Amino acid sequence: MRLSRWLLAALIPLGACEDLTGLLTDPDAPANLTYQLTPSGDPNAPLAVLLSWDVPRSDNATAFNVYGRIGGGDWLLRGTTTSNTFHDAGVPDVQYYVISRDLDGNELARSNIVTIDLHANVPAPTGFTSVSLNAAIQLAWSSSAVDALHGAFDHYRVYSTAYDGSRGVCTADWVLEGTTASDGFLVGNLSNGASRCFAVSTVTHDGHESVWTEARLDTPRFDARNAFVYSTAARTDSSGFLFVDDGSHKLGVVAPSSRTDLDFTVARHSDGTLWFQPARTGATMGLFGNTPVTDLTSIDRAPSTGYSSATIQAVPGFAYVFRVQKADGIHFAVARVAYVATDYVVFDWSYQSAPGNAELSRIPLP
Length: 366
Hints:
The radius of gyration is 32 Å and the shape is rod-shaped. By secondary structure, it is mainly beta. 5% of the residues lie in helices and 43% in strands.
């Protein structure tokens, strides 16, 4: 004799109430059907959906039929699988359920129905910024999307594409740079002087993707740390500096002060202070702001005016921008002084190899 479900429930001890739902579920039914979208870059058109469910408690199920429908339309068989997952490629249907099958092909019991809302309101990251580095770009943004999703956040997707300088637009050839769960991402192996556009989206645990941030343009540039140049009074063989040596094609060259192609030299005044001195026609410089900067990457963009051939005292923490005329056009560079000794100056520097590009660290898309 089979006990009724009402009588079975009455016989269950009170301490086992948390298991009541599982006991009353059809043992042939797939349980806990869930879905995971595969983001594509378009919030309304994911690449696919992966359905997953628990194997029925009974041993009767040998396969599973997967049904889907769009809106209030008819349920259609999407496929049959012997596993407890099903990958449906393309834009998914709005609803799905799964039915177990026995060895003879008879359908046994149905799972719950899952509904996929492709228009879920997933917030995009805000506060999107970038920092130009040597052959790399550091991207960063705020945690606003994580805060707004209240535990549903999973990761970010980072995209990039080439920048068409002749038309002043980002090209349509966007690619996925990678994913991250942090509020920053380093894009490496880039070509210095080649501008590129970047954007970021938010993805939830179930695969819903937000719209992208506004595209951001950035250009990697050459840099180096802890270069040092002597004053001409101390060592004439190491008191000149070239951001680029056109003859050897080397960057950051310390050279004798007698060379005529130097970008600057270091001079010592009668009071013992050391000063930067533009060294040739076509090389001018200016002080970047009136206060110290914390790091080379804090220097965003070379100013359009304020350059001259006048000497400027080298002071620790301060930055100095250079406007250098080369055969292919104007190039911009910067030096940040780290230390000033009696006979030499230690500094970090960066150089933008793209002619006419004043970007030294960060720049918004124009």
